[in-house]
Structure formats: structure tokens, C-alpha cells
Amino acid sequence: MNLETVIYEVKENIASITMNRPDKRNALNHALLRDLDTAFDQAENDPEVKVVILKGAGKAFCSGYDLTGSPYISIPEGYDRWTIGNALKTLRGISARYLKIFNLSKPTIAQIHGYCLAAGCYLQMCCDVAIAAEDAILGHPATRGGGVTSMPLWVTILGLRKAKELLFTSRLISGKEAERIGLVNKAVPPDKLEEEVWKMAKEMAEVPADGMMILKEALNIHALMAWNLDATFAYHRQLNALGRLGRSEGAAPYTLDQLRSRTRGEKPEQ
Q1: Count H helices, E strands: the chain?
Q2: Alpha-carbon distance 242 to 202, whole Å?
Q3: d(Cα 225, Cα 220) in Å, to the nearest integer?
Q4: Do 119 and 142 meet the contact criterion of CB atoms below 8 Å apart?
Q5: pLDDT digit string, tens, across residues 223-254
Q6: What string of DSSP letters covers 41-106?
Q7: DSSP category for residue 143
Q8: SS3 (DSSP) at 37
Q9: Is 138 helix (H, G, I), strand (E, B) or coil?
Q10: Residues sharing a CB contact under 8 Å with residue 36, sequence separation 6 or more, in sequence order
């Protein structure tokens, strides 16, 4: 398996998928997203793998989509602007990637440190469990530009009022606050993060693989029925796609400088 931007390792029945663009805070560009797809497919199809850990190299988990080029940001090849057709096709692909992680037959754990922003936060929400360093920084600064996020799990995980609070304000919060409101399962001191994630992964790996698979299947189907996730994913991607129409340069209603200004030197809510 030849991966350019992901480190894939298997040890003691646990696959570690490490996003490896540390100089870009693991911003999701075309190459990284392709490599993530390949790595998750490998973990899914490897009978040795019982648990998957998703993490980031360097000083951040993931800072979101790469604003200089990614499927979410860049106008599709062969077009000079967004159209209803190319926007919906693009967003269907993006939703499919989220749901691939959400529906992986094996349990997934997000190991969060540093920045976990926008689509980085989406990735951790798609994982079954998320453990963060207490000083990690989570949130969605891009919503300051308005428009509909392509990720519906904010409401599912946080409830309507807390989701509105975070998305309406673009507020950033610490790992400790993320644990308090339920955005992550647990926050631990930074020097204990890897140890705590590995401990949980080992506990999950002790469960017989077939038993774990049917348990996760049952829980996910329960979520689909209770929250109608298929429909909510479709609705969010449709509104996100329509929000792109009329813009000929870039998909996002914010600039790189605006996003940087939201994350540079800002103290997250504790």
C-alpha cells in the first residue's frame, strides 16, 4: 500500500491511521483524502484489524479542509463555476466519505490533540469514540461566513441548542469543555492522551470480532432509525451544495485570512 500523506500501521490487532501533513496541520487536500479512503478500506478488509485509531502527526489532529485545494473547496475539474449538478455530485462524494467512517464495521477511536477544526471536527464525530487532550481546540470557525455545514451530526451529538450556540458563534472550545458538552467522550492531560487511547483500543480489541461487528451494526441502525441520519445527511449536503451557486472562485464563503484570524491566538472556551 503506497500512501503519500497517511501513515498506516497495525499492532496487536489495532490499526493506526495517522494523517501526515504536519506542516499544514493535517489540512485535508485531495491526496490526504484519497489516502484516508485507502487506509480505511485496508483496515475494513484486514481480518487482523479489530480496532482503528485515527490521529494526526505534528501539532494538530486536523485543521479542516485545505483552503488552497480540496474536493470541498475547489471547483470541479472542467468547470469554471459551481452548478447544481457538479455541486450535488461533489457533496454526495463528501457525505459518502463521512458515512464510510461512521459505518466502518470495526470500532474507531479519534485521538485528538491541537487543532480539531471544521472538517477535522467532522472526522472525529464520524468515529465511534473520541478522546481529546484537555488543551485541544475544537470547533467550526468557518461558520462565521454563514451557510449550511455539510455535517448533520452536530445536532445529533450535542442537541439543538448547544449545536446552535457553537455554530452560530463559531466559538472554539477546549478538549475539557468538549468533554463537558459531549462533543468528545473524554479529555485527558496531553501527556496521557496516547496511553488512554491505546488502553481503550485494547479493551475493544478483546471483544470477539463478529460480536463487535453486530453490536456496532445494531447501534448504528438504531441511530439511523432514531435520528433518520440518511435523510439528514442528504438534506445538509443539498443545502450546502445550493449555497455554492453563483460563486466562481472557491467553495467556501470565507477566505484563508479570515479562517486564520479565527484560530490565531484565540483562547478556547474552557
Answers
A1: 10, 9
A2: 44
A3: 9
A4: no
A5: 989 988 889 999 999 998 888 886 544 444 44
A6: HHHHH-TT--EEEEEESTT-SB--B-TTS-TTTSPPTT-SS--HHHHHHHHHHHHHHHHHHHT-SS
A7: G
A8: helix
A9: strand
A10: 6, 17, 19, 28, 97
| Angstrom distance (rounded) from CA 50 to CA 106 | 6
Decide if 175 contacts 184 (C-beta within 8 A).
Answer: yes
Q: For the whole model, what pTM was predicted? A: 0.91
**In the CATH scheme, what is the code of domain 6-263?**
3.90.226.10
Task: For Cα atoms 179, 154, 145, give the angle at the middle one, nearest 5 degrees.
Answer: 110
Domain residue ranges in the chain: 6-263
Q: What is the mean pLDDT of each run of 10 residues along the chain (270 residues)?
A: 95 98 97 97 98 98 94 90 92 95 98 97 98 97 83 95 95 97 98 98 97 96 90 91 68 44 56
Which stretches of 95-225 are assigned E, i.e. beta strand?
108-112, 115-117, 129-133, 137-139, 172-174, 186-188
Distance between CA 167 and CA 217 in Å, rounded? 30
242's enclosing H/E stretch is helix 229-242
C-alpha cell at 199: 488502553
Non-local (6+) Cβ contacts of 64 within 8 A are: 27, 28, 117, 118, 119, 120, 121, 142, 259
**Grid cell listed for 13:** 490487532
Picking from 53, 121, 109, the residue whose alpha carbon sits closest to that of residue 263 is 121
What is the Cα–Cα distance from 148 to 152, expressed in whole angstroms? 9
What nine digits make up the cell of 118?
Answer: 471544521
Asked if residue 82 lies in contact with residue 247, where contact means CB atoms within 8 angstroms, the answer is yes
SS3 at position 141: helix
Sole residue written with cell 468557518: 142
